[in-house]
Specification:
Helices cover about 60% and strands about 0% of the residues. With about 325 residues, it is an all-alpha fold. Strands 1-2 form a two-stranded parallel ribbon. Helix 1 packs antiparallel against helix 2 (about 45-60) and helix 6 (about 120-130) crosses helix 14 (about 300-320). It is globular.
Length: about 325
């Protein structure tokens, strides 16, 4: 950015390319933090947690405490609806109302005019929403650490007044501050405020899409269960999860950060990335032996499945609510 700080089209193109690269850097930092905080890298978990602060809070801008609370819950109950508002047995990653519905029961939650409009067009607004996903996660990170309001996620459901702990809360805030300091220092190098704002938008849209596409491939459009009727652990993990097939150059594996082997990651979350191909062979054989479908598809085909699932639910919603 400092090199291309002029006002020519060439300088603008150079800065835009830099914004895209930084967005992908944020995505890859996310994968590194994911592996480190899943204890795939260091034998000493305390060391992994401290290293995770750098790649999570400083490099990527996400609170590790917020992420671990949300992500560990997701791993325990992927694509599961909680038994009630005060229950802890639901997957926060499919708690996407009033914007998106991933199951028929979620359609009944579209009560406001805004929510009805969104759900009836969810297959059309899906990618625009993903583009701003990183901004939402940044806000959630700060809100969680500071416990800004009842929607921050710190409250323990069913236990009024009790909060989930944030170890080293002050440190987390300082490290998040460091992230914003170096990030906005880069944005300030631009020749005008509008150019700097454009840089911020491009980095966040690039990262949001790059992260969210991989996340959605993992579980969206797959089986969804009520908590009281979910299958046992391994069947739950396999039937709610989609793997992504490999390309000859290894770009899929790099882009997905190892989550192209999402089934194996959910079954063995502490297994390092380089062991997943072998584990995949064993998992496929085990699923075949027990008659459980093991689903994998390419990035484009998987994305089409997600959009088709959203469209099917939107069509059903419009049929049930003709005014939409």
């Amino acid at each position: 950015v400092a090199t291309f700080n002029g006002r020519t089209w060439g300088d603008f193109a150079g800065r835009t390319a830099g914004a895209v690269v930084l967005g992908i850097f944020f995505q890859q930092c996310g994968w590194l933090a994911h592996e480190i905080l899943h204890h795939q890298v260091f034998g000493n978990r305390a060391v992994g947690h401290w290293v995770g602060y750098f790649w999570g809070n400083v490099a990527q801008g996400f609170s590790t405490s917020w992420w671990m609370n949300k992500h560990n819950t997701h791993h325990a109950v992927p694509n599961v609806h909680a038994t009630g508002a005060d229950a802890q047995n639901g997957d926060p990653d499919i708690d996407t109302m009033p914007f998106l519905a991933w199951s028929k029961p979620m359609l009944s939650l579209a009560e406001s005019t805004f929510s009805k409009w969104m759900v009836s067009r969810q297959h059309l607004v899906y990618f625009p929403l993903l583009a701003f996903a990183r901004l939402s996660w940044l806000q959630q990170s700060v809100a969680y650490v500071l416990n800004l309001d009842e929607t921050a996620g710190r409250a323990v459901k069913g236990a009024p007044g009790e909060l989930k702990p944030v170890p080293h809360e002050t440190l987390e805030l300082v490290l998040l501050g460091l992230h914003y300091a170096w990030y906005f220092a880069i944005a300030a190098l631009h020749p005008t405020v509008l150019h700097g704002l454009f840089f911020v938008v491009v980095t966040n849209v690039t990262c949001g899409l790059a992260l969210a596409i991989v996340f959605s491939l993992g579980h969206n459009g797959m089986a969804v269960y009520d908590a009281a009727k979910r299958p046992d652990f391994w069947k739950l993990q396999v039937t709610t999860t989609r793997n992504v097939t490999q390309d000859r150059f290894g770009l899929t594996h790099w882009f997905c950060g190892g989550l192209d082997y999402q089934v194996e990651h959910h079954l063995f979350p502490t297994a390092p990335r380089h062991h997943l191909p072998k584990i995949s062979e064993l998992t496929k054989a085990f699923c075949a032996e027990h008659g459980i479908k093991y689903h994998e598809t390419g990035i484009i085909e998987g994305t089409k499945e997600v959009l088709a699932h959203l469209k099917d639910l939107a069509t059903e919603f419009v049929r049930d609510f003709p005014a939409m």
